[in-house]
Specification:
- By secondary structure, the chain is α+β, with helices and mostly antiparallel strands.
- 46% of the residues lie in helices and 13% in strands.
- It has helices at residues 4-23, 42-61, 95-107, 142-151, 155-165, 168-177, 194-206, 212-222, 228-233, 277-301, 315-329, 338-344, 354-369, and strands spanning 68-73, 78-82, 88-89, 116-118, 139-141, 191-192, 239-246, 249-256, 262-271, 274-275.
- Strands 1, 2, 7, 8, 9 and 10 form a six-stranded antiparallel β-sheet that branches. A two-stranded antiparallel ribbon has the order 3-6. A two-stranded antiparallel sheet has the order 4-5.
- A hairpin with a 4-residue loop joins strand 1 and strand 2 (78-82).
- Helix 1 (4-23) packs antiparallel against helix 11.
- The radius of gyration is 25 Å and the shape is globular.
């Protein structure tokens, strides 16, 4: 519920915006290039993006086995896409969206993290995992099963989860996401697409802090015991990684954290479970370079206060910021993308507040309408950092 204090602030802000809207009969002038704070050379940044994309494309298209690669920022923008909708045997990647489904059910009270399943010979499953190596008769909680399925890609843990949470609800969730992947009683490791796996990782990441079960899943992915993307990029940023392998495939879907996070999906080949390590590492390194170049280009062209990306600062930007703040204050999604939030956060404090809307409006009246020299960071500006 919005407090009386915030209601007064919102009312005041809305009144000011309405007043300005009525007086801004003339169209807002485009903001001069000099008004963009600390802007690097946009042309040079664009060339770096093109070069990085060409390098990644050379590696991917030169690969001699079937593959799919998808690199997206956290706004969902595809920075690189190669066969994103090609159905490829997914191996253990299905455990990622299934873990998300389990968390959905746990949050609804369908099961408890403390529910247990006892390991017997009937549960034995070859391949990845640690439960199969343990003695029969040992019981495992749902809490452990979620962790093992993510951390060790444990096949027995996955089978036990499917036993507890079922198939139909999961398939319905995937259908609502807009994908054709399905599991059945006899086929629990279906084909997937890179697009589907990107969506799955995005969903898991966006809800990672919602509940204990989701934190278990996320911690398991951060601590997963295999993956060559992590080797290629090092330990400078957190990487949540789900891998999957069968004799002729090696796949990785990764959330690469840091200041400018992104999601990378690599579906590639293998020979008798041996991954094409150099290919995966080269793709990961080239994708990371492209993501960095893309962010540099965004930094070069992102106009502070231009929330609707029309290359000018106007009362509409202030209105959008105020509306987004109101939605967020009510516990709803702001309705803005990550890049829009960056543009709206004009005071650079890392959060969207009513002050941002007021500053955008003041900037518009002073620098666009009145033609005052300088910009956000000008020494005589009231908005100087």
């Amino acid at each position: 519920m919005i407090s009386v204090k915030h209601r007064k602030l919102l009312s005041a802000g809305a009144a000011v915006l309405m007043l300005t809207g009525s007086m801004s009969v003339q169209s807002a002038a485009a903001v001069p290039r000099s008004f963009i704070a600390d802007a690097p050379d946009a042309d040079a940044a664009a060339k770096q993006v093109a070069a990085a994309k060409n390098e990644l494309n050379r590696i991917v298209t030169g690969y001699w086995r079937t593959c799919a690669v998808l690199l997206c920022d956290m706004d969902g923008t595809a920075l690189y896409s190669y066969r994103p909708d090609l159905m490829i045997s997914g191996a253990s990647l299905i455990k990622l969206p299934y873990a998300f489904y389990c968390c959905e059910q746990l949050e609804k009270g369908v099961r408890s993290l403390d529910d247990t399943v006892t390991y017997t010979s009937a549960w034995y499953h070859g391949g990845a995992g640690i439960i199969r190596k343990n003695p029969y008769g040992r019981s495992y909680t749902v809490r452990q099963l979620l962790d093992y399925a993510m951390r060790y890609s444990d096949n027995v843990a996955y089978d036990m989860l499917v036993y507890l949470f079922g198939i139909d609800g999961f398939n319905e969730m995937v259908r609502e996401w807009g994908y054709e992947t399905r599991i059945t009683q006899y086929s629990r490791f279906p084909a997937v697409t890179a697009s589907f796996m990107r969506t799955a990782m995005e969903q898991v990441q966006q809800h990672a802090d919602n509940s204990e079960c989701r934190r278990i899943v996320w911690d398991g992915l951060i601590g997963s015991t295999s993956g060559y993307t992590r080797q290629a990029l090092g330990n400078s940023v957190p990487i949540a990684l789900k891998y999957g392998s069968i004799p002729d495939c090696w796949h990785e879907v990764c959330y690469v954290g840091g200041e400018h996070p992104y999601i990378l999906v690599i579906l590639s080949g293998a020979v008798n479970y041996s991954a094409d390590v150099s290919f995966v590492k080269n793709v990961a390194a080239a994708a990371n370079k492209l993501a960095a170049a893309h962010q540099a280009e965004v930094d070069a062209t992102l106009l502070r206060g231009d929330v609707n990306f029309d290359r000018k600062v106007s009362p509409l930007d202030a209105q959008l910021t105020l509306a987004a703040y109101t939605e967020a204050l009510s516990g709803k999604d702001s309705g803005l993308t990550g890049l829009q939030l960056r543009a709206a956060d004009v005071n650079g404090d890392g959060s969207l507040t009513i002050a941002d809307a007021q500053m955008i409006l003041q900037y518009y009246t002073e620098h666009v309408l009145a033609g005052k020299e300088g910009g956000w960071d000008a020494p005589d500006s009231p908005h100087a950092d």
